[in-house]
Amino acid sequence: KLTANYQDLRGQQLKYSDLIFFIIPAELECDALCKERTLHRVLRNVNSQLLVVRPELNVAAFEDVTDQEMQSGKGMHFSIHCYKTTTPLAGMPVAFSVQVEDKSYYMCCERERGEMIIRFKEGEVPKEIPNESNIIFFKKTFTSCCSRAFKFEYSMEQGMFLAFEEEGYLRKLILKKLSKDEVDETMKISL
Fold first, then answer.
1. Residue 130: Cβ within 10 Å count
2. What is the pLDDT of residue 154?
3. Would you say residue 113 lies in a domain?
4. What pLDDT, on a 0 to 100 scale, did the predictor assign at position 20?
5. Are strands 128-129 and 170-177 parallel, antiparallel or unpaired?
């Protein structure tokens, strides 16, 4: 029998037999998404253009980028934050952030006038996400025969994927609805 004594926060002496221990089985997992690792990549569309974020204009678009512009990296070098999941069939949960000047911005989705809009807001991606979040996307292979390219499904609206849409001279980042059997090249993103 152990007879060790401990002091509680009030300074009272406690005996080992007065303590209560909780044993939590190892197989139980937290429902929260917990950040597991971070990848640093550029995001390319089917036309080999890089995704560039311009927070001052409130826009993210795929653009042709020179080597010199790529070296400066302003708004185009992304951190892809991978989270541990208990539901791997949905895809790898990820969040995106990007550094512009000396500020960090994270990607999120918001409903505006009945339409889902991609936004980049100043701030950091959380280490843990306790429940649904407008910053999480499920990373999935683009097609079974194209394992080096991906599509990213918005976690809060099944069938909605990151894509680009031509708007004037821009190939703007958007959320786009996809039917189950369709293959849409505007959703193809290479890392």
1. 10
2. 96
3. yes
4. 54
5. unpaired
What single-letter amino acid sits at 73?
A: G
Q: Which two tokens stand for residue 107?
A: 């990607």
- Does the residue 126 lie in any domain? yes
Residue 100 in tokens = 């512009």
The dihedrals phi and psi of 69, each to the nearest 5 degrees, come to -65, -40
Residue 104 lies in domain: 31-190
> What pTM was estimated for this model as a whole?
0.80
Task: Give the SS3 label for residue 173.
Answer: strand
Residue with tokens 């500020």: 103
Q: What length is written for the chain?
A: 191
pLDDT in tens, 78-129: 999 999 987 777 899 999 999 998 899 999 999 999 999 999 999 999 999 8
Below-70 pLDDT ranges, the chain: 1-31
> Parallel, antiparallel, or unpaired: how do β-strands 170-177 and 5-7 relate?
unpaired
Tokens 């197989």 -> residue: 27
Task: Calculate the CA 117 to chain-centre distance.
Answer: 16
In a domain, 9, yes or no: no
The answer to whether residue 53 is domain-embedded is yes
